[in-house]
Amino acid sequence: MNVEIVEIIELSGEASHIYSVALEGAEMTLLDDFFEENKGYTKEMKSLVERISVMGSSLGCRREFFKHNEGAPGDGVAVLKEGRFRLYCLYFDRTAIFFGSGGYKPEMARAYQDDYYLKGKAMQMRDVAAVINSWIKEKEIIINEDGSITVNDE
Amino acid sequence: MKISKRKATGALAQMIANIDDESLRRTKEKMAVASRIADAVKAKGWSQKDFAKQMNKSEAEISDWLSGERNFTIETLFDIESVLNISLIVKTAPIYAQVPNVQSVLIKRKSVSRFSVKPTMESWFELGEKLITFQPQLING
Known about the structure:
The structure holds 2 protein chains of 2 kinds.
Chain A: E1 3-8, E2 17-23, H1 30-37, H2 42-59, E3 77-82, E4 85-92, E5 96-104, H3 116-137, E6 141-143, E7 149-151
Parallel strand pairs in A: 2-5
Antiparallel strand pairs in A: 1-2, 3-4, 4-5, 6-7
Chain B: E1 2-6, H1 10-17, H2 21-43, H3 48-55, H4 59-66, H5 74-84, H6 95-98, H7 102-109, H8 121-140
Helix pairs in contact in B: 3-4
């Protein structure tokens, strides 16, 4: 899987760096896609944008804001909930967060696995997390204490 | 591998552009309250499960509380304060007990609009603080 890491300028701030990823050949990031696909749910989307903005500008990506263990064991995939909406992500300390996409979790679904569409989004985030985690493990990228990313060119 | 910085596009860009300061402030306050609760739980050495037991709530509900998306009722905040021994709400004596005849002072001076009084707990606290601050001016002015 080829992905480009994109820092979202308007959402990043002093407390944390807000990233998303663009899949190979795509112009929009997965975060852009998520809001585009769900723009009809104004209240929920507005709240999510504000919460992400607050994380970037002042409070950081605190553990309690997320629901954990949403991906493969140990891969760090978490979810930001807003009502029935789930937005998948991967965060490091309080200072760096990578957003994938997500969707609406139907009331009938006990877990994301019960919904075909949401399961697809969760699996996509798993794949993205696997790529990012491998880059970190191989020291191809370093996530600094302040959440910025250094690319190892060696 | 490529890393770049760019602005949001499409609906996300539109939503970011439309964020209003007051709504953002409320969201921040909600998240800050959740964080203060989480910090207090941690300071007590409790897990979310321990806290849920103390509050007589399910773990799922506690998780919702701490996510920052919850609008707490005053009663719930009082209960949390009691269990965690922290202060989440600024408590002052009722306004009438601090500023005698405050309503008549306000009406006479036609200053009530300055305070944008809304029927919410938050704005009453705000009004109370402003009245205390402005008391000498209101009485002597």
